[in-house]
Amino acid sequence: WAQFLPRWFASGWRDNAVSAFDLSRAETLFARGAYEAAAAEAERSQRLFVDLEDQVGLSQVEALLAQCAIGLQADSLMANAQTALEAHGYTEARDLIDQANDLYALLPEEHRPATVIDRYTQLATSGIEADGSLEQARSEAEGWLSIASARYDAVAAGDSYALLGDGDGVARANEVVDGIDSRIQRVVYGLSALVIVLGAWLGTWLWQRAPGRLRWQSARPPGRAWRANPGGD
Asked: Taking the domains of the chain in order of start, what are their residue ranges?
């Protein structure tokens, strides 16, 4: 014990014990958004307050740990939202953003990454609207009265997907547009053929109706001999 005691004092245990009473370092880390490091610092204080049965200090450190846990979960949700956006899962991304936003509301206002949340929300909303426009285009493409609107919606969806860097979405939009264009092209060809046939028929009709081509010939009147012998040989 006599040999161990000098090393014990030299190890800095007193400084560590005193620093564990001080939550300022953990609070500073929390204020910076370094939730994991702040939680590690706060856990040191938590163990000390438990050993000392210091309920006041324990309640303070547990409140800080709870805030750190909320911050970690909110940041994790935002990271998952980014992953969902990169995979073009727009509905999933917006759900994750909403959950993260609810958690950030439990933290001090300066902890909420407003710029990132707004940007991610905008991207997710654009993707969801593009998905809706493309689905609407598919449903309207079958009706001739709505085919123009369907093509407009499909093109708009493709433009949005392009801005989002969603190559698969662009391909799906192109497929719908190509299908609509093919239908329109077939109708145009059919109408063109019909116009040609009608034009040929009209030309023939006009040619036959030209002056001098209609010559109505009446039947020749009966001769005198026939009139003289109506029932004879």
From this structure: 15-112, 133-209
